[in-house]
Amino acid sequence: MAEDLVIIKSESKEQQYQSLLPQIEGLLTGEDDLIANLANVAAALKEQFGWLWIGFYLVKQDELVLGPFQGPVACTRIRKGKGVCGAAWLEAKTFIVPDVEEFPGHIACSSASRSEIVLPLIKDGEVVGVLDADSADLSAFDEVDQEYLTKIIALISL
Ligand code: SME
Question: N or C end of the chain: which has fewer CB within 10 A?
Fold first, then answer.
């Protein structure tokens, strides 16, 4: 496995994802440890996009519990239906939040977060966790992020 990522910064967001996707696939190949893989996916996304926060929460009993991430320290536990992450768990769907102040019940782990995307991790029809990305910019995430982050999480053996 190559240890260094090739990071392209000057191209479009779509081109950045297209460059990153096969590299993430390479990082995951031959490794079946979930925590190791989530950690590398978070690191690769942070290195490419430089978002404020990127990471995972995993379902444990009746809560989401903080998993591998990159960025400032974060809330450790989120209940089902609470915040954007809890909503993505409850509804088993992706939420794109252009302005976190407009999302009822948003949980502000960092006051610097302005926009957010959360995607559910689904195994055998059940949500087993979420991928959460936060940006210090408003409206940082759109359908391009949803499309490629969906492809990235599909590469992870849950
Ligand atoms: N903002 C999230 C909480 C997690 S942090 O952003 C890392 C939410 O509302 O669920």
Answer: N
Closest CA to 153 of 111, 118, 115: 118
Using DSSP's 3-state secondary structure scheme, residue 95 falls into: strand
- Domains located in the chain, CATH noted: 13-155 (3.30.450.40)
* CA of residue 2 to ligand 1 center, whole Å: 32
Q: 1 CA distance to ligand 1 centroid (A)?
A: 32
Q: Is the CB of 114 under 6 A from ligand 1?
A: no
Sign of the CA dihedral with 49 first, then 37, 116, and 95 last: positive
Low-confidence ranges of the chain (pLDDT < 70): 1-2
Atom 2 of ligand 1, nearest CA residue: 107
Span from the CA of 44 to the centroid of ligand 1 (angstroms): 20
Is there an atom of ligand 1 within 6 Å of 41 CB? no
User: Which tens digit of pLDDT belongs to each residue from 96-134?
Assistant: 999 999 999 999 988 999 999 999 999 999 999 999 999
φ and ψ at residue 8, rounded to 5 degrees: -105, 130
Question: Which atom in ligand 1 lies closest to the alpha carbon of residue 69?
Answer: 7
Q: What percent of the chain has pLDDT over 70?
A: 98
